Amino acid sequence: xxxxxIISAQEPLRLRLRERVALPAxxxxxxxSAFLLFSVQPMFAKMILPSLGGSPAVWSVAMVFFxxxxxxxxxxxxxxxxxxxxxxxxxxxxxxxxxxxxxxPLGWPDAPPPAQGAHxxxxxxxxxxxxxxxxxxxxxxxxxxxxxFARSGHPAAGDPYLLYAASNAGSxxxxxxxxxxxxxxxxxxAQSLACVGGYAALSLALILCVALLYGASQGxxxxxxRQDAGARPRVVWRDRLVWVxxxxxxxxxxxxxxxxLSTDVAAAPLLWTAPLALFLLTFILAFxxxxxxxxxxxxxAQGFLTALALSFCAGGVRSVSLQLAVHLLLLFVACxxxxxxxxxRRPPAAALTDFYLCMSFGGxxxxxxxxxxxxxxxxxxxxxxxxxxxxxxWAPGLFAARKGGLRTAVTFLVFDCVTLMAIYALxxxxxxxxxxxxxxxxxxxxxxxxxxxxxxxxxxxxALAALVAVSTSxxxxxxxxxxxxxxxxxxxxxxxxxxxxLMHGTTxxxxxxxxxxxxxxxxxxxxxxxxxxxxxxxxxxxxxARLRAGGRLDHxxxxxxxxxxxxxxxxxxxAIAFYxxxxxxxxxxxESARFPFLSACAPQAPIVLGDARLTLAGQAARSDVIVVDAxxxxxxxxxxxxxxxxxxxxxxxxxxxxxxxxxxxxTLDLSPTVARVAADLGLVAFHRLDSTTxxxxxxxxxxxxxxxxxxxxxxxxxxxxGQWLRLEPDLSRRVWSxxxxxxxxxxxxxxxxx
Length: 754
Hints:
By secondary structure, this protein is α/β, with parallel strands linked by helices. The protein has 24 helices and 12 strands. The protein has helices spanning 3-48, 57-83, 86-99, 119-130, 132-150, 162-185, 188-212, 221-229, 237-264, 269-286, 295-313, 320-344, 352-377, 383-393, 405-427, 434-445, 455-477, 537-548, 583-590, 597-601, 612-615, 643-651, 671-680, 744-753; strands at residues 480-484, 487-494, 499-504, 507-513, 555-559, 575-580, 607-609, 623-628, 653-662, 684-689, 703-708, 725-726.
C-alpha cells in the first residue's frame, strides 16, 4: 500500500478521533479556566483586604478590575481571531499563557497603601502588578476556545455557544467551592500554590485543544467572517449598543448588591461570592432558547421585588436576613431577564468574539459606575435605586405593550419630579417614622404590578418611588451624608431632636445628647453614650484597668475613632491615641460643632491615620488598655481578630494591661473564634453580653471580650458570679490567622446561639 493510501486511510480515523475528543477537551479546558478565574478573584481580594482595613469597597474595586481585565482578554481574543490565522492566534495565546507563569504564585504587593486618598487607584495598581498577567490569560480563554471550536470541523461547531454552559458551570462551581470548601480547608498560601497546579493543568489542556485544531480551517478570522456574512445578517452598531446596555445594568446591580451585603455583615468571600454565583447562574439558565420564566411571571416577580427593594432603601426594615433575601432575589430575577434578552440577540458564530467583547465592555461600564463613579458623585448609595429602575426598564415586554411607551415614560418622569418637589414643600420639617416612609415608597411602587399595559406609568411610578427613597431622609430629617472609599457616613438628628447620631451604613457609631428630658440644652463635658457608657462593658473594662494601675492610666490605644466618644473616658493626666483608617471620620470627629467629644475631653489626643495593623506597630508606648472598636457598618474587619493581630496588640500592652475587643454583630458570633486565638497565645478571655437600656445616656447593648495575660489582670471583674464570664476555648477549632479565616463557622455559631 502506498504512503498516500495509508494517509488516506488514517484521515477518517483522525477525524473520528477529533469528533470524539474535541468537544470534551474544549469543554473541559473552558470549565477549568473559568474555575481558576473565579477562584482567583476572591482569593486575591482576601489577600489584599487587610491592607485597606477590611473595607467592602476592596471587593467592589476588585470586581471592576476583573471586569476590565475580562474586557482586555476579550479584546485580545477578538483581535487574534480577526487579524491572525488560526495557528498564529493559537501560538500567540499559548505564549501569553505560559509567560504568565512568571507572576505565580500570587502574593501580597510590596508597596504599602497610601495613608489617605487614592485608595482605589493604589488597589487597581496592586491588582495589576500581582494578578494581572495570569488573569489576562485566563480571561481570553472563553471567547478564544469557543471561536476555535467553531472552526474545528466538529459536527457541533456551528453553535459554539453550547460551550458557554461549560464556562458558566466552572465559574459557578468555583464560587460555591471557595467559601464552603476551599476557604475553610486551605490557607491563602496553600490556595496560591494550588492555583499554580491548576494553571499548569490548564496550560496542558490548551495545548491539547490546539493540537486538535490540526487540519482544521487555516483561514484567518477576517476571511471566515466574510464567508459567513453572505449567509447571515451583518452585525450593526445598534446591535452592539443593545448588547452593551443589556450587560451593563446587571453588572452595576451586582456590585451594588454585593457592597450592601459586605457592609452590613462582613467583608468576606462568603458574601462576595453569593451574589456573583447568582449572577452567573442567570447566565446558565438564560442562555437557552426557552426562557426559564414566562414574560408575565417575570414582569410580576420583578415588579413586586422592585417595590419591596425600593421600600427597604427608604428604611424601616431592620431584618438583615429579609433584606438580603429580597435584594438577592431581585438581582437574580432582573439579571435573568436581561441575560435572556442578550441570548435572544446573540449573533452568528462568525461574530462571537464581537458579541462577548460588547458584553464585557457593558459589564465593565456597569461596574465602573457602581464602584468608582457613583461613590465619587453621590454622597449616599443612590446608585442602587437608580439601577433597580434601570433594570425594570429592560423587563420583558415593558415597552412592547403599545406604541409611545417611551414618550409616556418621559412624560411621567417629569410629572414625578414636579410632584416630588411639591411633597417636599408640604412636608418639610414633619417627623415621619422610617416605617411610614417605607410604606409610602412601597405604595408608590405598587402600581408597577398592575401597569404592564401602560409601561410609561409603571416606569414612572418606579422612578418616583426611587426618588422618594433616596431623597426624603435628607430633606425631611436633615441627614447629612458623607462618602469615602470606606463607605457612607450619615449625621442625623435623632429621638425628636434630643440627640445627634453618626451612622456608618445601617449602624450607629456615635450618639451625642443635645437636650435633656425637659428640653433644655445639655451643658458641660459630654457624657459617653451608646456602646461607651460608663456602666457598659467597655466602660467597666477601662475602669477595672484604671484600678489595677493604681487609679491612673498612663496610655490607652483605641483602634477605631467613630465620633470620638471614647475620649470622654479619659481623666486628667491620662493619654489616649486613636488609630483610624478613614480620613473622613477624622474630619467629622474633629468638628466640635457636630461632635464635641474630642475637643472637650482629649483635644491633644493624636490620631494616627492608616490601617491599625500597620500604624500600631510603630507605637513606642505600651498601653494599659487597647480598645479594638473598628467597624464597617455592622461588620468587623476580620484581619483585626487574627492570631497575628492579637499578638501585635499583646506586644504593645503593658505588663498588667487588658485588650478590649468590641465584637457586636447581628449575624456572626465571634466569641468562640476570639477565645481560640487567645488560647493559642496563652491569654485569658472574658466576655460580657450587654442589653440595651435606652435611658438618658442611650445605653446600647453590645458584646465585648477582654483579654489579659492572667485572670488577676482583670481585677474584680474576673471573679465568678459577676456579669463577665470566662470564655473557655474550643481547642478543636482552627485558629484564625492572616493565612486562614472563614466567617462560615461564626455564622453557624450565631444560629446555634439563637
